[in-house]
Amino acid sequence: MKSPLARFLFFFVLLLVGLEVVVRANGRYFYALSDSMLLNAKILEREPETKILFLGTSRFLDAIDHHLFTKELAAHTGINLKSLNAATTGLQSERLAWFSKVAVSNPGLTHVIIEASPPAMGSDGKLDLPGHSSPVTSPAEEVRFADRFESHLQSWAMEHIALATYRKALRPKTVIKLFVLYTANIMDPNIWSRKRPLESIFLPANESVSPAMVSALEPVIIAPGPAPASTTSGESFENLKTIADIFQNSKLKVIWVAPPVSVAQVPANHNSTFTSYYQTIANQVGATFYDYAGQGWEEQYLRDPSHLSARGRSVFTKVLAAHLARHVLSGKNG
Amino acid sequence: MLFNSITFILFHFCLVLIYWALPRQSYRQVLLFVSSVIFYGWYYWPALILLGISMVVNYGFSRMIGSAESEERASLILKIAIIVNLCSLGWFKYSAFIAENVIALLGQMGIAAKSPPVSAWLPLGISFYTFQIIGYLVDVKRGVVKVEKNFLIFGVFKCFYAQLVAGPIVRAHELIPQLKIRRIFNSQDFLLGIFYLIAGLAIKICIADTLAQFVEYGFNDPSKLSTLTAWTTLYGFAFQILSDFWGYSTIAIGLGLMYGIVLPLNFDRPYLATSLREFWRRWHITLSVWLRDYIYIPLGGNRGHTGLNLFLTMLLGGIWHGASWNFVFWGAGHGLWLAAERALAGTRVGRSVPDHLLARILKTLLVFHGVCLLWVFFRAKTFASALAYFQSLFGYSTASDSPSGNLLFVLLGFVAFTVLLGKAVIDRRFLEWRLWHQVAVCLLLLILILSYADARLDFIYFVF
User: Which of B42, B451, B453 minimises the CB distance to A146?
Assistant: First the structure.
């Protein structure tokens, strides 16, 4: 092959085919890398000894350090209950429902702690998870032959070419997740999803929390009880109830936790609708609701009005571990 | 058919294979003509009717100009041809805008008027092919090029799919001779063409489309933005529009090279310009040259009222970009700045501006920021929205909903990308690289294209 073009094409196609073979052979890993929820499912699968699972949105992602939680819980109860924070950003209830079904297949799981945020979890948004098919183009665009043709080509490529199927996993940022997958046991995998990851690695916050502080930050606990005055219904309510049901049916203990917000944010986040919403869920599925959202934490513990900073995470993780150790794991209110 | 679709990639590679297998140039001309018609009709087939009419009418005009017995008659036919072309452009692109403003003006005067019928759709690439054909007709009249008698070659010049929709605006003397001579396959050109295609797609998909999300967010509601985010978003748009259009032009040049046809360069690191004049020599080069040759020079050029000529040329350039007051302000802003720059250059102050490295860096930053500020008019949906954006830029707002962290990351990525690809694309350095270097870069770019090819977005200049 003397021609530079022929040599280029030969090696280019050779490498492309080689890459296709590699991706195809490791499809399940590349598949997991393409979505944070899938990655969490893979981490959970690789760590069957996990007992406590955290589920939620970016607020829970910022609020819980699961390695610290496991350590604190062990300090309070003397039992080593391994935990995993599987909260992800941009969570929709359908994705959460999918993950819940995957999670219950983990035999070791005993407790699920779900973030209770203002009832805004809808079912809109694109799903790219097994069992759900998402159209490549919108129905309106499908009208023209040209669009239908392109859509068929894309679908064919997605089905038959691994590089296309797992294309999202090939993004530079996503490839780093391979490292996350293999180090999840020793390093908090969520560090990379939060703001300032390097600071969390090299300068981890470790706030001291006194017993007085634990008592002062006691949450309002809503256990199944009298029905609230207003009737709660709607799509997001049904979605959350479905998720709770999935865990309850598998005999797992479900606890809802509303993480703290800033003082200014309390009136907006914490009102009668919010409480009645979770009271209704608590009644219908027999779960307990830990409400920290009415407390109003100081600015130094928050990076924005509704997300905890590294310091806030350290404090909240310790406080929550202490409260859950006292109430749930001792049998009280559980 | 969009360049960033699988349909197009398959379409193009099939055609290229057939093209080089054809033994005669006339067969190749037929192939290019038919494929260009299919390409254009694929997007919206009724637009073919307009393209066909425009092709036949302008072919007729060019033959009439070429065979006119006198200079006066040729001038008259040229004037009629230009009016016909501009009327067509005006109807499809500006009728709604003009009607809306006339009705509003009459309303101010207390006269109620009904909206007249206006064009409901904008044919793809009409601004580009109208300018290209006007340039050809003027060149025929000036004697710069001979009138093309072969309708097939004329047709390919008019609608060659590589540059039909969004340029580069090709001059007849650049393209027609290449269509006539039988091209011999050149593996170096073909290799460079592949690289341009991949690099252009990467620039469009990985940079422009990624930046588009942040820019869309920022320009949707400028009042929400902190000053820092407003500036970052504006930088984001400056690089989005560059990478969108530079990406498109790079693909177009690559497609041409695969047929052995060289299309002119359209971008040359415009944000490194140290004056606005230099900026326009680096940005959308083929449009700048067109405006210079067919508007600025006929207006009088440098022979008197230079400032006014510059202003009018850029004002028309602004209007060419779109039918809205924002484009008028954008063009007028550039025109005033060019006129001021020109006026200053002739004074003692202008001549005393130093030209050492630091001064050049400062001038580059100044020009870049000036261009960015004018981009606000270009990107904002309405004039009020542009003003609101300026308020966010200069209002020292500390609103906290900021995506600037990610945006800065992408911007830094773009700078790295530009540095890496700039030399290879613009200076054709790709061919000097070692084989492994070439393969690795193309493979890496292809993987990036695949991984980011999530939401297929149209090219910004498609609407112009």
Answer: B42
pLDDT score of A126: 38
Any chain A CB within 8 A of the CB of B396?
A: no
| Nearest residue in chain B measured CA to CA from A305 | B400
DSSP-derived secondary structure letter, A192: G
B399 in A contact zone (CB under 8 Å): no
Model confidence band, residue B402 (pLDDT cutoffs 50, 70, 90): low
Rounded Cα–Cα distance for residues B331 and B295 (Å): 14
Model confidence band, residue A264 (pLDDT cutoffs 50, 70, 90)? confident
The amino acid that residue B157 corresponds to is F
B330/B440 Cα distance (integer angstroms): 41
Which residue in the set B187, B400, B451 is minimally distant from A167, CB to CB?
A: B451
Beta-carbon separation of A146 and B7 below 8 A:
yes
Beta strands, E only, chain A: 52-55, 83-85, 111-115, 220-222, 253-258, 288-291, 302-304, 307-308
d(CA B388, CA B294): 36
* Nearest alpha-carbon partner for A230 in A121, A122, A119, A124: A119
Sign of CA dihedral B373, B376, B378, B379: positive
Q: How many residues are recorded in chain B?
A: 464
Residue A233's pLDDT band (boundaries 50, 70, 90)?
A: low
What 3-state class would DSSP assign to A92?
A: coil
The answer to whether B453 touches A167, Cβ cutoff 8 Å, is yes
Alpha carbon separation from A287 to A114, A221, A278, B192 (Å, rounded): 10, 11, 9, 65
DSSP label at residue B208? I
pLDDT one-digit tens code per residue, B419-453: 777 777 777 778 888 889 889 989 999 988 888 87
What contacts B461, CB < 8 A, 6 or more positions away? B166, B167, B244, B245, B248
Q: What are the tens digits of pLDDT across the range B243-263?
A: 888 988 999 999 999 999 999
Judge whether residue B389 has pLDDT over 70: yes
Query: Would you give the DSSP letter of residue A271?
Result: S
Q: If you average pLDDT over residues A308-334, what whole number do you get?
A: 79
**DSSP secondary structure code for residue A297 in this structure:** B
- Asked whether the beta carbons of residue A5 and residue B191 sit closer than 8 angstroms, the reply is yes
d(CA B74, CA B83): 14
**Angle of CA points B175, B181, B185, to nearest 5°:** 100
Report CB contact under 8 Å: A4, B191: yes
Environment class of residue A2 by beta-carbon count within 10 Å: exposed (0-12), middle (13-18) or buried (19+)?
exposed
- The pLDDT-based confidence of A181 (bands split at 50, 70, 90) is confident
Question: Is some CB atom of chain A closer than 8 A to the CB atom of B406?
Answer: no
Which pLDDT band, with edges at 50, 70 and 90, does B324 fall under?
A: confident
Q: In angstroms, rounded to a whole number, what is the distance separating the alpha carbons of residues A320 and B102?
A: 67
Measure CB to CB from residue B452 to each of A149, A157, A171 and give the nearest one.
A171
Question: Considering only alpha carbons, which residue of chain B is nearest residue A6?
Answer: B187
A84 contacts A53 by C-beta, under 8 angstroms: yes
Write the DSSP symbol of residue A56.
Answer: -
* Interface with chain B: mutation pick from A12, A143, A303, highest number of B CBs within 10 Å: A12
* Candidate ranges B116-120, B202-206, B401-405; pick with highest mean pLDDT: B202-206
CA dihedral (B206, B211, B214, B216) in degrees, to 10, reads -110
Q: Which residue numbers of B are catalytic? A: 321
**In Å, how far are A242, B227, B287, B315, B384 from B378, measured between CA atoms?**
48, 19, 17, 13, 13
- Sort strands A253-258 and A302-304 into parallel, antiparallel or unpaired: unpaired
Q: How far is B5 from chain A (nearest CA, A)?
A: 7
